Amino acid sequence: MAKLSVDQALLKAKSHAKKGEIAEAQKLYQAVLEAFPKNKRAQQGLAALNTPKQPAATQGPPQETINQLINLYNQGLMSAVVEQAQALKEQYPEAFIIWNILGAANKGLGRVQAASEAFKKVTELNPTYADGFSNLGTCLQEQGKLDEAIGSYKKALLLKPDYVEAHYNMGIALQDQGKLEEAIEAYSKALSLKPDYAEVYNNMGNVLKEQGKLAEATEAYNKALTLKPGYAEAYTNMGVTLKKQGKLEEAIEAYNKALSLKPDYAEVYNNMGVALQDQGKLEEAIEAYNKTLSLKPDYAEAYYNMGVTVQDQGKLEEAIASYEKALTLKPDYAEAYTNMGVALQEQGKPEEAIEAYNKALAIKPDNAEVHRYLSSLIKYKPENAQVTLIGEMIQRSDLEDDDRCHLHYAYAKMKEDLGDLDIAFENYVAGGKLRQKILFYDFEQDKLIFNQIKNTAPKLKEFAFNKSIKAATNTPIFILGMPRSGSTLVEQILSSHSKVNGADELPFLSRFGGLLSHGNEIINSENVLQMRNAYLNELAKVSNECPFVTDKMPQNFLHIGLILKALPEAKVIHVKRDPAATCWSNFKHHFSSKGLGYSYNLNHTVSYFKLYQDLMNFWEQQYSDQIYHLDYDKLTLEQEPETRKLIQYMDLDWEDTCLSPQENKRSVRTASQQQVREKVYTGSSQAWRKFEPYLKGTFDELYGE
Question: Can you spell out the DSSP letters for 362-417?
Fold first, then answer.
């Protein structure tokens, strides 16, 4: 092409074609099209070359023989096709059509390598046969040879620019490579040629979903379903997209439609379980996972998701067993090792947890969250290689905000252990800034919530049930206050008693009663009773058949008014701690909860603490005789007398086990899980003072009154 003009190249190609020099003609036409893709003469010339000529009797088998092979293929008798085609290719080695049929039959039998070799032979025997290149592309794609597959599709499209399937399959290969914009371009070309191609719309939706364009993805799935109403896969993908948008009910509806079309669709049951889990419907989620595994017993992801769900229920042994099953099926399942580590950590088995985290990192060394988990279990020394590793990882420019945030907290903990407090403080601040950005935190929203609650409180104060209420089977014990105030220790003490089950942080109150507390629902007997019954029903499920059950959700201090009206039999224990110690401990922790956005900025933390103090004073004025105030620092100094007073408030008989909370083997899921495995000790509320030079009097206003 360097020495020929376009016209000269086309004339020479035509001359080669007349002489039967097909390969030479094809090269020239392709060269023109590579430089000028819309050249009509080159397209027409190539298309003419691509028109199969009737083979002479000496060059190929009779048409009747070919038709018989095709008939066998259409009947699904692939082994018979292979057997006959093998014999025919020996007789007619130059007959590309026999090789093509042989390739198709081998592919139908799952013999991808043999099929690939047959299709490659087709392209060698007939370089103008677009189907040969397209078929070869699909085999290469199945083998994971994506670059070669795309190259083969491009050759098919040079020969046949309107080849819809080649455009479609190339789109899939590009998508698998992560070249999403190019994939969309290929799908769009396919749709311009075949506007009713439902599968293309479905795949287009998948690409848009990967790009985070969830509304556009949903639109693409809807187009696919309009064209093909019985398209179960499109309903499934729609469900996944809706879940990503937080539209859980709509997602579940889409999954149900997929299952109505394809009742044995294991993947949909798994996805359904995830959506139900996000709704807090854990038993229903487990049922969905069990259904998944009955259909597909080797489904590692379902075992993993089952583990996550039972772990949420506090069933740690069952969770670990599920993770082990997932790992048996998928030994490189890093996420399963990670969650196993979390479960082991919650069980108070730090050494085993460290081992699990290290296995996760051996598979995915860059997993920032696992590095953070690991950092919480290790007392670092200068020679620890992880310190240098994390320091280097933080400097990378390609990190997502979430990963960088995890690394900042891990590095801050490491540097605090090593006494490099300036670097530690710098990283706590940087991590907190990123965390607030990720959570889209707005302090004004928190202020609004406090105001709403105080405005609603008089209505709750006046409320009384207009009829007698059914006595609770289990008495709830609300342990509340600011996070990191010692509530976990108090729960450990109480759950050491034979009649008390520690249920950890329960989301039930905010889920069933949050709107009432905020005044967003009418406060009447029907609504309050509904909230009461829903809460008690869920509490019974986690009671472990104990008459008393702890609910240690710290933020329940927001709902004290609702608690004492809807659940008058409840025990309310307000745990308080030194303000500066509380604020500092809040600030330096990366909480799993997304509802503690204030804690990642020191000024916001102090301001939030003052809002909390004000609200607690407000509750005390109204319900002074119904709230038990427990000072954490006093509890650690005078453990036995303070513990005896606590048990007396509960109207429980004394049990000596309450003095040894460190021996309580229940799972602990909060940031205090390591501390409560040790004997009660004093002085923790002064730990913040080593950072006092960096705080510039931030906490002074907490002691102003």
Answer: HH-TT-HHHHHHHHTT----TT-HHHHHHHHHHT-TT--HHHHHHHHHHHHHHHHH
459 vs 86, higher pLDDT: 459
419's CB contacts (< 8 A; 6+ apart) are none
Q: Burial letters for 687-698: b for 16+ Cβ neighbours within 10 Å, e otherwise?
A: ebeebeeebeeb
What is the set of domains in the chain, with CATH numbers? 6-50 (no CATH), 443-703 (3.40.50.300)
Average pLDDT over residues 582-600: 94
pLDDT at 377 over 60: yes
Instruction: Say which residues have a Cβ less than 8 Å from residue 609's Cβ, sequence separation at least 6.
Output: 482, 579, 582, 583, 702
Mean predicted lDDT score pLDDT of the chain: 89
226-239 pLDDT, tens digit per residue, is 999 999 999 999 99
What are the residues facing 630 on neighbouring strands? 575
What is the spatial distance between Cα 516 and Cα 559, in angstroms, rounded to a whole number? 9
Record the pTM.
0.78
Place of tokens 């004394």: 654
Q: Name which residue leads in pLDDT, 70 or 656.
A: 656
3-class DSSP state of 590: coil
What average pLDDT does range 635-649 have in this prediction? 95
If phi > 0 it is left, if psi is from -120 to 50 it is alpha, else beta; for residue 565 that is: alpha
* Residue 609 structure tokens: 């603490």
What is the length of the chain? 705
Distance CA 680, CA 567 (A): 32
Residue 628, classed as helix, strand or coil, is strand
Strands 475-480 and 548-551: parallel
Cβ neighbours around 67 below 10 Å, total:
10
Instruction: Specify the amino acid at residue 132.
Output: G
Task: Summarize pLDDT for 255-291 with one digit per residue, the tens.
Answer: 999 999 999 999 999 999 999 999 888 999 999 999 9
Q: How distant, in Å, are the alpha carbons of 30, 186, 206, 272, 694 from that of 213?
A: 37, 18, 10, 22, 43
Smallest CA-to-CA distance from 518 within 430, 601, 455, 425 is with 455
CA atoms within 13 A on the CB side of 319: 22
Distances (CA, A) of 527 to 456, 490, 589: 15, 32, 37
Other C-beta atoms closer than 10 Å to the C-beta of 675 total 17
pLDDT at 470: 86
* Order of strands across the sheet that contains 628-631: 500-502, 548-551, 475-480, 571-576, 628-631
The string of DSSP codes covering 252-264 is HHHHHHHHHH-TT
> Given this model, what pLDDT does residue 594 score?
87
Which residue, chain included where needed, has tokens 């509380």? 582
